[in-house]
Amino acid sequence: MGVTEIDLSRPMPVPTPTSQPFWDALREHRIMIQYSPSLGEYVFYPRNRAPRTLADDLEWRTISGEATLYSFTIAHVPVAPQFADAVPQILAIGQWTEGPRFSTELVDADVDRMSVGMALQPVFCDHPEHGITMLRYRPAGQRG
């Protein structure tokens, strides 16, 4: 039996019709998430109906992108071979000023200076070869 070649390229997100506006905005280095008038609040992840009310009233709105660190962990073991060069990796939950929480990877961060509640700023990571821009975060005030 022959040796099977392993694809070590990193997996990329595949936008859906529901999430496409989010990805289109990221490509322009903007962050758009949905707002529900029936709830009177922003919601995230992209969906077709508002949570709790199930109203069909979701609107796409641009947000500031400002966030605080809600929680984080340091991954020392890669989740797959494609991420072997990315450890240690700071996996985090952030909370946008507008309300929703989101998962992200922190970049340009000193692990010893990390603290829950610290301010975060968005980092747009363009992958033109895949036609996608990924949203990462770094501690506020740092430049990449």
Automatic annotation (TrEMBL):
<dbReference type="InterPro" id="IPR012340">
    <property type="entry name" value="NA-bd_OB-fold"/>
</dbReference>
<feature type="domain" description="ChsH2 C-terminal OB-fold">
    <location>
        <begin position="60"/>
        <end position="124"/>
    </location>
</feature>
<dbReference type="InterPro" id="IPR052513">
    <property type="entry name" value="Thioester_dehydratase-like"/>
</dbReference>
<protein>
    <recommendedName>
        <fullName>ChsH2 C-terminal OB-fold domain-containing protein</fullName>
    </recommendedName>
</protein>
<dbReference type="Pfam" id="PF01796">
    <property type="entry name" value="OB_ChsH2_C"/>
</dbReference>
<dbReference type="InterPro" id="IPR002878">
    <property type="entry name" value="ChsH2_C"/>
</dbReference>
